[in-house]
Amino acid sequence: MPPKNMYTARLRYLCYPRCSKLPVAAIRSSISSQRTICTTSTAPYRDSAPHSVVPVPTTLTNCRYAQRHPRTVAASPCPCFQIRRASSQLSRVIMPRPGTTAETYVAYGMTQKLFEVCSSQADYSIPQASQKGAQVPKTEAGEDLGVGEGWWYEDLGLMPTFSTWSQITFLHMYLLTVRLRVLPSYESFQTYSRHLIDHFSHNAEHRMDVLHGFTSRTIRNKFLKDLFIQWRGVLAAYDEGLVKGDAVLGAAIWRNLWKASHTGPDGKELDWTKIARVVAYMRRVTSELSQVSEADLIFQLCQQTGDKPSIFGYSEFDKKLVQGKR
Q1: CA 285 to CA 175: how far, in whole Å?
Q2: How far apart are alpha carbons 167 and 21 in whole angstroms?
Q3: Closest to 187 (Cα-Cα) out of 293, 289, 101
Q4: 296-317 pLDDT per residue, tens
Q5: Which of 22, 61, 127, 146 has its CA 20 to 30 A from that of 167?
Q6: Which domain holds residue 141?
């Protein structure tokens, strides 16, 4: 029986002598010339993208061993497919089946993030609340006057008070509610809507206690009931405005944000172009939210790309639209 090393030597003789004569530079140039580049396909995306096959260079196929054992190398999938596939998987995780226990927990966490974005649009603080014995300034109506930033206070001239914060937060919660109404099922919409108003109630009660000194739970509950009634009125008023036109929507904004007053906080006659800017803002945000999927709402609300503001951000386009400029 011939020794095993005899077959090893024979195999080495069949393959390596011919392959060793190939110049390294020629092999590298051949591989470089036949290397495939992964590009984004213009065809509609499919969740399971096929792996592309990279052929073995023809220079290497001259080897007798390569002719007997042809091989193809499977290229790794394109990074764009991996990102889209991960995004689709994330969407399936974030948006579970309606009515399940998982949806309740997901809705609670998601609406908490959404409410934080709504609340931050007209956030305010009262520095005197943390100072012992300090006097909190008041408005003419007797409300605690705080300190706030943003175009709602600086451009529109609204007062940084609890009532202003609650109404601006209600406005943004309403815009999200309009978007959430197109969820796959009515039960899902009810779950998200309920958690959204619950987050508002918890935050409002915290502000009453910490910033405004309402230590009595009975008084806080009374105010929370009034706020819930206001929320129901906001839904009805803004729904009517979206359906009947900008004049009706502007009247609803005037009643809620400016408290149906014909004068501004400075005592001068109200500038009605400010109300028109809020109408344009609501129309723009409603349109942009309709183009965002439910799973991407959290990421898109505050994301600013280049010169384009975030969905809930200040836009010069709204101001130019009111002034009649393009």
Answers
A1: 7
A2: 81
A3: 101
A4: 887 777 666 666 778 898 888 8
A5: 127
A6: 101-324
